[in-house]
Amino acid sequence: MGNKSFKPTTPSLRWTSISDFAEIFPKNKKPEKSLMEHIKRSGGRNSQGRMTSRRRGGGHKKNYRIIDFKRDKLGIEGKVVSIEYDPNRSARIALVEYADKEKRYILAPVGLTVGTSIHNGSGSEIQPGNALPVREIPLGTQIHNIELAKGRGGQIVRSAGAYAILMAKEGEFAHVKLPSGEVRLIRSENSATIGQVGNLDHENISLGKAGRNRWLGRRPASRAVAKNPVDHPMGGGEGKSSGGRQPTSRSGILAKGFKTRKKKKQSWKYIVSERPRQ
After folding, report:
1. Which residues contact 201 (CB under 8 A, 6 or more apart)?
2. Are strands 183-187 and 173-177 parallel, antiparallel or unpaired?
3. 3-state class of 226 per DSSP?
4. What H or E segment, with its residue span, contains residue 142?
5. Under a CB-based contact definition with an 8 Å cutoff, are residues 245 and 234 in contact?
6. Strand ranges (DSSP E) for 160-220?
7. How far apart (Å, rounded) are the C-alpha atoms in residues 127 and 116?
8. Digits of tens for pLDDT over the chain (278 positions)?
């Protein structure tokens, strides 16, 4: 597991750093067809054809891998068949075959290898890749793929290298410190997976050239101060103006220091301490 750089035979290769895919095994294995489905890309447009997310479009064709975030295959042992690349996420995925021959993809944590046994549900061992209720996990354990509502499946802490720490247990809630530094209440009956999400070196990847961004479906972004006043609040001005006002988004919302989270949001009651300000 790591990244590799290249001999700078071209200007872009001088800065390119990509994954070495060392953890993927077996090599050249095709993804499980029964766990793949077609993605219809929108290019940032909603159901009415109006653009609601800018700077999206193009990119390489890819199919979606159906991931088992719910981990509801209870009481049946599974074996890791392969560790695979997933073009839709930063983490690697593991193909697990259960004793009843059903196959499912899960997020591959650090230390998970081909041949490892996987268990889901109450009574599972505390080892990477096993999923069990938060109330049965020891304090100080690294966890990921955490449920916010029982049975809904893991919704947070799913990207490469991410992990949360179980800080305390109090009644029907547990205190979990998230990667952002926020401490949040999670119901003790909710499921979480043991370990840290794999592919730790993803954060050190350098795309090296603009074209690689286009392959990922990301279109170019122009600076706000380079636009006209009709296109952005920070546009216009004589010469190279730096805005002449507080930085804002295109819709006029303050971009630096202004808290955009709603003050009456229901989930405030689950936040014990906010993430530290950068």
Report:
1. 1, 2, 3, 19, 161
2. antiparallel
3. helix
4. strand 142-144
5. yes
6. 164-170, 173-177, 183-187, 191-194
7. 10
8. 689 999 999 999 999 999 999 999 999 899 999 999 999 999 999 999 999 999 999 999 999 999 999 999 998 999 999 999 999 999 999 999 999 999 999 999 999 999 999 999 999 999 999 999 999 999 999 999 999 999 999 999 999 999 999 999 999 999 999 999 999 999 999 999 999 999 999 999 999 999 999 999 999 999 999 999 999 999 999 999 988 889 999 999 999 888 888 999 999 999 999 988 76
Calculate the dihedral angle through the C-alpha atoms of 13, 28, 2, 180, rounding to the nearest 10 degrees: 100
Sheet containing strand 93-98, strands side by side = 103-107, 93-98, 78-84, 117-118
Domains of the chain: 24-198+267-273 (2.40.50.140)
Structure-block tokens of residue 194: 């043991």
Integer CA distances (angstroms), 112 to 4, 27, 66, 102, 260, in order: 22, 16, 19, 19, 39
Which residues are bridge partners to 94 per DSSP? 83, 106
H-type alpha helices, 175-259: 210-215
> Which position has the token pair 């993804």?
31
CB 112 within 8 Å of CB 198? yes
